[in-house]
Write a structure and sequence with these properties.
globular, 2 helices, 4 strands, four-stranded mixed β-sheet
Length: about 80
């Protein structure tokens, strides 16, 4: 089982909503905790990579399962 502290369902949302909701969810976490995001927007792949590098949060996982894209972000 893949570990995470909080999960965000961003399916059906389009850019920039998955990132904005992820940022809000990360703000509720402590440093080192992990946020799992599930999205359906194909553009979210590059968006989450850019978001992680710009904010210093670590992108632990970026994968696709059918129409769903899954991300795990570790709060800096």
């Amino acid at each position: 089982m893949v570990y995470f502290d909080k999960e965000l369902d961003a399916r059906g949302l389009h850019c920039p909503l998955p990132i904005l909701k992820a940022k809000k969810a990360l703000n509720q976490l402590e440093s080192g905790q992990i946020l799992r995001v599930v999205a359906t927007d194909p553009g979210s792949v590059k968006d989450f990579a850019a978001f992680a590098s710009q904010t210093g949060n670590e992108l632990l996982e970026s994968s696709q399962d059918g129409p769903n894209f899954q991300y795990r972000l570790k709060k800096r």
